[in-house]
C-alpha cells in the first residue's frame, strides 16, 4: 500500500513563512530630541547664575583692577589710571613675590603630605575599631572639623604661649628640656611648625572621613585572597587597597593643595599673636598686606590673578581626573 506525502496546512505554511521573513519593518519616524534633555540644564541654571553673580563678577572686577593704578585715592572716588601689564611686570620682577611663592609652595607641600599621611592612618584605624570606639573617634574628628579656624588658632596659640603655654611647661618641667620661656613664633621655622600643626589638625578629619568611606567599599574577599597568598598588611594596602581608592586619594590630595595654598586665617592670626610678618607671609596674607596694608590694590589684584591662574591649573587637573574616573 503506497502512501502519498501530505502537504502542510496552509495556516502552518503561512506562519512558517512569516517566521523566516523576520519581524515586519516599522515605518520610519523622524528623529526627535531625547525626552527630558533640557531638565539637567534647567536644574543647573540657578546654581550657575548664583556662581556667576557671586564669583564671576568679582573676578571680572579683580581682573580689570589688575590692569589699573588703583590706590587709596581711587577708593575715595578718584578715577583709576590704566597701566596695562605694568602691575604684572612689577609683581613678577619683585624678589619678595618669588620668596613668598616659594615659601607658600613649600609650606603647602609639608601640610598636604602630613595631612594625607595622618588622615589615611586615622581612616585605617577607624576601619579596625569596633562600633563604640569608632563612634567616639568620629565625634572627636567632627568637633575638630567644626571648630572655626580662628578659634582653633587662638587655642593653639595658648598651647604654644611663651610664658604660660602647656607645651613649654611639659617640655621644661616634665622632660627636663631647655624650653622655659621659649618663643615658638619668633623664628620662621618654628612659626611654620606651629602653623602646620594647626592646619593639619583641622584638615585631618576631612581626609579621614573621605578615605574611610572609600575603605568600606574595598571587597573583603579580595583582601582575604591576598592574605591567603601571603601578602602582609603593608603589601595588601599598597597592592590591593590603594588601587581601589586611588580616585579618592587623587581628589582629596588636589583639594588639600588648593586649600593649603590659599590659607590665610591661621597665618595672619599667628602673626598678630607675635610672629614676624616679613619672614612668614604666605600668598593669602601677602595679597592682603599689599592691597590693604600698602594701599596698592592694583598690584594686589595682579597677585590675586596670578594665584587664581595657579589654582585654576590645579583645578583643571582635578576636573580631568574626576571626569576620567566617571567615564570608566
Automatic annotation (TrEMBL):
Pfam families: BPD_transp_1
Region entry Disordered, spans: 1-32
Keyword Membrane part of the UniProt annotation: yes
Domain of life: Bacteria
Chief location category: membrane
TM region(s), chain numbering: 38-60, 105-125, 137-159, 191-215, 236-259, 297-319
Entry GO terms, CC: plasma membrane
Sequence similarity: Belongs to the binding-protein-dependent transport system permease family.
Name this protein carries in UniProt: Sugar ABC transporter permease
Amino acid at each position: 500500500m503506497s502512501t502519498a506525502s501530505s502537504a502542510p496546512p496552509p495556516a502552518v505554511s503561512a506562519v512558517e513563512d512569516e517566521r523566516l521573513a523576520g519581524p515586519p519593518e516599522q515605518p520610519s519616524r523622524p528623529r526627535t530630541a531625547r525626552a527630558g534633555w533640557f531638565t539637567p540644564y534647567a536644574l543647573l541654571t540657578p546654581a550657575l547664575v548664583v556662581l556667576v553673580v557671586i564669583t564671576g563678577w568679582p573676578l571680572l572686577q579683580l581682573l580689570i583692577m589688575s590692569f589699573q593704578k588703583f590706590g587709596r585715592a581711587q577708593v575715595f572716588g578718584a578715577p583709576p589710571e590704566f597701566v596695562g601689564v605694568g602691575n604684572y611686570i612689577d609683581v613678577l620682577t619683585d624678589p619678595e613675590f618669588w620668596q613668598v611663592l616659594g615659601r607658600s609652595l613649600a609650606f603647602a607641600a609639608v601640610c598636604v603630605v602630613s595631612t594625607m599621611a595622618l588622615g589615611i592612618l586615622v581612616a585605617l584605624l577607624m576601619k579596625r575599631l569596633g562600633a563604640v570606639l569608632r563612634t567616639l573617634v568620629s565625634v572627636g574628628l567632627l568637633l575638630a572639623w567644626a571648630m572655626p579656624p580662628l578659634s582653633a588658632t587662638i587655642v593653639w596659640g595658648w598651647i604654644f604661649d611663651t610664658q604660660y603655654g602647656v607645651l613649654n611647661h611639659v617640655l621644661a618641667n616634665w622632660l627636663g628640656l631647655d624650653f622655659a620661656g621659649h618663643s615658638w613664633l619668633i623664628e620662621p621655622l618654628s612659626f611654620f611648625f606651629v602653623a602646620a600643626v594647626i592646619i593639619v589638625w583641622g584638615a585631618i578629619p576631612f581626609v579621614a572621613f573621605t578615605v574611610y568611606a572609600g575603605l568600606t567599599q574595598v571587597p573583603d574577599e579580595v583582601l582575604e585572597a591576598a592574605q591567603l597568598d601571603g601578602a602582609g598588611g603593608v603589601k595588601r594596602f599598597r597592592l590591593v587597597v590603594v588601587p581601589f581608592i586611588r580616585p579618592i586619594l587623587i581628589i582629596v590630595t588636589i583639594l588639600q593643595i588648593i586649600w593649603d595654598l590659599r590659607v590665610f586665617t591661621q597665618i595672619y592670626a599667628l602673626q598678630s599673636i607675635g610672629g614676624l610678618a616679613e619672614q612668614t607671609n604666605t600668598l593669602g596674607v601677602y595679597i592682603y598686606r599689599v592691597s590693604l596694608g600698602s594701599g596698592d590694590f592694583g598690584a594686589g589684584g595682579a597677585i590675586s590673578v596670578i594665584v587664581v591662574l595657579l589654582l585654576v591649573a590645579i583645578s583643571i587637573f582635578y576636573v580631568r581626573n574626576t571626569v576620567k574616573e566617571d567615564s570608566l
